[in-house]
Amino acid sequence: MTKFFTYCFDKWWRPVLFFGLTAIIMVLCEFTNEPKLQDYSFLLFLLGFLGLIISTVFQLVKRHWRFAILTTIIIGISIVAFLFYSIALFWKDQSMPDKYADNLKIPTNVKINEPLEYTQPTNIADTDFYIYSSLQPGLYQYAFGTKRIDKGKIYLKAFEITQNDPLSVDRLKENSTISVCNSTDSLVSFQMDKGNSDFGRPFTIYEGDWGKPYAARFELWFIPDKGGEERKLIEKNYIIEGWQR
């Protein structure tokens, strides 16, 4: 381990080269429009930046003053460049809205529901689920009511109706998962964790943009804790909008 650490940081240019590669990867991944890939590349970038800091400390300990000053300057330039990069991404997102829903038509031959207001609690009278709009278009919450159900977890899948495109595939399952269990014949309601919200933490639909509604099919799936295949419980159609990033 010591030899590996020395190999990585003894030469000042090695962590600089690694950091440069992580910065290039992060920028390239930004053009993929894959949120998961963007998250991983950003974590890799942070790892490269941490390597620069460790390298600076290592050079100071070794009294390689010139190299320590050089890596410190690189750190400063990188911080300034990252701030400008973040601002540029923000303005790009604002000036280039998502065009996913521009040509989508809302079908008239199927029942489509409107999301309820998040301030509008609903008494669920039978096994059913409801989608709620949150504080911004594209952010949603949901509640599920059921009688007897094994211990397990429920989560949502979403699809645009006319093209059957999966929506927010990388994050929807993780962000909509709720633990459930009801061993009685009484109806019990489950909803997403409240966290710091008055109603519950929202999940996000990324495809589309504000002011561009389209129809989506939401499927509620159940995974039993005791094992076995997951199964679909209910599906309902809703008018939604994508989140404007």
The residue ranges in which pLDDT falls below 50 over 5 or more consecutive positions are none
* Named CATH architecture of the largest domain: Sandwich
Tell me, briefly, the overall form. Answer: elongated
Quaternary form: single chain
Could you report the average pLDDT, rounded to the nearest whole number? Answer: 86
Our estimate of the beta-strand percent is: 15-25%
Major sheet size, sense and barrel closure: 5 strands, mixed
Output the CATH class name of the largest domain.
Answer: Mainly Beta
Helix content: 25-40%
> What Rg, in angstroms, do the CA atoms define?
24 Å
Count of helix runs: 5
Whole-number total of structural domains: 2
Number of strands: 9
Query: What is the CA-CA span between the terminal residues?
Result: 42 Å
CATH topology of the largest domain: Immunoglobulin-like
SSE class: alpha+beta
Helices and strands, in order, run as HHHHEEEEHEEEEE
Plain-language structure description:
By secondary structure, this protein is an alpha+beta fold. The protein has two domains: 2-95; 116-240, Immunoglobulin-like (Sandwich). It contains five helices and nine strands, in the order ααααββββαβββββ. A hairpin with a 5-residue loop joins strand 2 (128-133) and strand 3 (139-146). The longest helix has 31 residues, at 65-95.
